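Notes from the 1:1 (GR / supervisor)

We went over the backlog. Supervisor wanted to see one worked example end to end before approving the batch request, so GR pasted a single chain during the call. The sequence is below; no edits were made to it. Supervisor asked that the structure be written out right there so they could see what the output format looks like.
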Amino acid sequence: MSAAASSPKTGATFLWVLGAFTSFAVLLAIFLNLAKPAEVDPRAPERLANKDEIAKVQNELIAKLGLNDAAKKGQVFDKTLELLKTRKAAPSTQVVPGSPTQLKQAAAAAPAPAAAPAAPAAPATK
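Structure output shown during the call:
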């Protein structure tokens, strides 16, 4: 067989076959998702009740702090911003697990635990 006898559409045939497989996969995924019933979480009512309780408590705290009013909220935030501007930047004391700092701290000798108090003597039995 010579090179002139082979069809120039060989790549096109491959793409058609690939497209056919892909279209069947997409159709299968659609049918499987349509046939699947919706999952029901048995804890949904409890979770909704918890969410409502948390929202209620948060709203009470916001009202107690007076942050419902936009003007008071702005004053509180401005006061906080001014307070933060007066503080100096300091290095963080938090250590990332696995970092060189944490490894150095872990390698450092831990202080010896304090001696436990002596147990009281047992009473004599007859």
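Supervisor's comment: Residues 57-85 form one domain.
Batch request approved.
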